[in-house]
Automatic annotation (TrEMBL):
Keywords: Copper, Metal-binding, Oxidoreductase, Repeat. It comes from the Bacteria. The gene is nirK. It catalyses: nitric oxide + Fe(III)-[cytochrome c] + H2O = Fe(II)-[cytochrome c] + nitrite + 2 H(+). Residues 41-147 form the Plastocyanin-like domain. The keyword Oxidoreductase applies. Pfam families: Cu-oxidase_3 (PF07732). Its cofactor is Cu(+); Cu(2+). One of its GO terms (molecular function) is nitrite reductase (NO-forming) activity. NCBIfam families: Cu_nitrite_red. Binds 1 Cu(+) ion. This is Copper-containing nitrite reductase. Homotrimer.
Length: 309
């Protein structure tokens, strides 16, 4: 029998910090704890994840351009390995990686000024970096522009990742990380928010007809480019590469998101039903990658309806 694992790393995609209303800059404290834990990979298997704050992705940090971000990193006592954090939003060597390298039980801190607005990835950068990232050590920080982002009805936080196990996809039990497959860029699993079915059975996204939603989408990688797509919907606006200083592209079907990169997409929801988030490199759906956006509300037959054949 597969063994039952209670622990879970999935980050609830609806947990997003509120938008920033203030006009003045501030010092923002960010506490990150690196936690290694065995947790659910799918209903049959578990995996020893490495995380920021116990979730994959780690928390979404939200600041304003010009803010000073103070990052306090603690590596939990029971960790097996050294960890740190590289903020892509930081200007300075390693994005803070050297300054935050902590052995188990250690704590370190650094500060950076958020000079450039946009949606940025952060990740552990202890060698082999690809292994720390693949095992779950990534998240994002949104640096809002001075005027903020336009208001929407709901925001979601979704990140893609790859998991490299010795055992083939769908195996049972505690699976082992595989260094050769990592170097050959051959993951067994592709996931959204940590594990298979994290954004389907576990945390489906919910919204209503008439609402406009925004998805902060990031690609932890560590290796594969994502072709992010929502089946049955069209992105009304896309902030390509997470860049918010130019007007967004409009009316986009699929958006390319590089490893270590991001995109912000906005969708107005007109027709109720289930919409599926995928990487349109669709073989990855067979390796675990999918998310549900469940939209409730009145049918819109003027937009979508069956007709007699
Ligand atoms: Cu690490």
């Amino acid at each position: 029998m597969p063994r039952v694992v209670a622990d879970d790393v999935a980050h609830d995609p609806s947990v997003v910090p509120a938008s920033i209303a203030r006009q003045e800059t501030e010092i923002v404290r960010v506490d990150l704890e690196t936690v290694e834990k065995e947790a659910l990979l799918d209903e049959r298997a578990s995996f020893r994840f490495w995380t920021f704050n116990g979730t994959v992705p780690g928390p979404l940090v939200r600041v304003r351009v010009g803010d000073t971000v103070e990052v306090y990193l603690k590596n939990r006592e029971d960790s097996w390995l050294m960890h740190n954090v590289d903020f892509h939003a930081a200007t300075g060597p390693g994005g803070g990686a050297e300054l935050t390298s902590c052995a188990p039980g250690e704590a370190k801190a650094f500060r950076f000024k958020a000079l450039n607005p946009g949606l940025y990835v952060y990740h552990c950068a202890v060698p082999p970096v690809a292994m720390h990232v693949a095992n779950g050590m990534y998240g994002m920080i949104l640096v809002e522009p001075e005027s903020g982002l336009p208001p929407v009805d709901r925001e979601f936080y979704v990140m893609q990742g790859e998991i490299y196990t010795t055992e083939p996809f769908g195996s049972e039990g505690l699976l082992n990380e595989d260094y050769d497959k990592l170097l050959n860029e051959r993951p067994e699993y592709f996931v959204l928010n940590g594990h298979v079915s994290a954004l389907t059975d576990h945390y489906p996204m919910k919204a209503n007809v008439g609402e406009t939603i925004r998805i902060f989408f990031g690609n932890g990688g560590p290796n594969h480019v994502s072709s992010f797509h929502v089946i049955g919907e069209i992105f009304d606006r896309v902030y390509l590469n997470g860049s918010v200083t130019k007007p967004p592209q409009t009316d986009v079907q699929t958006v390319v998101v590089p490893a270590g990169g991001s995109a912000i997409v906005e969708l107005k929801l007109e027709v109720p039903g289930r919409y599926v988030l995928v990487d349109h490199s669709l073989s990855r759906v067979e390796r675990g990658l999918a998310g549900w956006l469940d939209v409730e509300g009145k049918e819109a037959p003027d937009i979508f309806e069956p007709i007699a054949s």
